[in-house]
Amino acid sequence: MSESEVAAAAKCAQAFKSIDTDGSGSVSVTELRTAMEQRGVGVTEEQLQQMIQIADTDGNGELSFEEFLRVVSSK
């Protein structure tokens, strides 16, 4: 892994931790909604559910760090 990849992964980890407010190791719809609202991004409940569903590869209704990282690094 290059230095820039390590730095990007560290930034993603920091972002994930700031969204995962309960420290559970996963991001729930509620946590995602709060993060979006804090950043001034208006989304509907349906849009939030779709975001989670698209990224949630294990189907548990929440995003693990690995799932979050896949989404963020694909952008």
UniProtKB/TrEMBL annotation:
* Keywords, ordered alphabetically: Calcium, Repeat
Question: Which segments cross the bilayer?
Answer: none
Question: Is Heme included in the keywords of this UniProt record?
Answer: no
Would you say which domain of life the source belongs to?
A: Eukaryota
Task: Tell me the Pfam families matching this sequence.
Answer: EF-hand_7
Gene3D superfamilies, A to Z: EF-hand
- Annotated ranges, domain EF-hand: 7-42, 43-75
Would the keyword Phosphoprotein turn up in this protein's UniProt record?
Answer: no
Protein name per Swiss-Prot or TrEMBL: EF-hand domain-containing protein
Lineage, uppermost ranks: Eukaryota, Metazoa, Spiralia, Lophotrochozoa, Mollusca
